[in-house]
Amino acid sequence: MVTSPRRSDATRAAILEAARERFAADGYERATIRAIARDAGIDPSMVMRYFGNKEGLFAAASAFDLRLPEVGTLPARHIGVLVTHFLDRWERDEVLTALLRVGVTNAAGAGRMQAIFREQLGPIAAGVCPDPAEAPARAALAASQILGMALARYVLRLPPAAAMSRDEVVAWLGPTVQRYLTAEAP
Fold first, then answer.
1. How would DSSP label each residue in 99-163?
2. Domain limits, CATH 1.10.10.60, in the chain
């Protein structure tokens, strides 16, 4: 029997949604293929058929596009607008929070976060910093601020960080991210 593309697409989407929720709730180590399959309403063998193993499922479930603006569209004098963009992404989508949780406890999760930031934030840094050779270090510095706030605000929910308005977060972090990406090296 041949499965229709629509049904297989729906099954794949259901598995990925269940996996994202389970990885976010339980972390990588405690999330199981059986629990994910149960959440998706399918047999565990179907998860294996689509993704091969837990690592393959995690890689697919953690594929994430930050949807960063093109380098040429960013105002060089106000690159701190990236902070607003990241807040929008974190507040709109639990996948980044799930990745952050898994990334601090699991090597595969850390590797996935590293790849996302290297591949997506790296080109922004290279496009705006004074010396492209410094781009990786500058991207890491910017990521330290953005991920640090995300950890404090969305994962640990530290009361002062969680209580800040978006405008306050942008006002504090924007200039720092701006400096990391565009200022002359110390």
1. HHHHHTT-HHHHHHHHHHIIIIIHHHHHHHSSSGGGHHHHHHHHHHHHHHHHIIIIIS--HHHHH
2. 5-61
User: Residue 1 in 3-state DSSP?
Assistant: coil
CATH code of the domain occupying 5-61: 1.10.10.60
- Residues 71-119: tens digit of each pLDDT: 666 666 677 778 888 888 888 877 778 788 888 888 888 888 888 888 8
17 sits in which H/E element: helix 5-30
What's the pLDDT at 6? 73
The answer to whether 58 and 108 have CB atoms below 8 angstroms apart is: yes
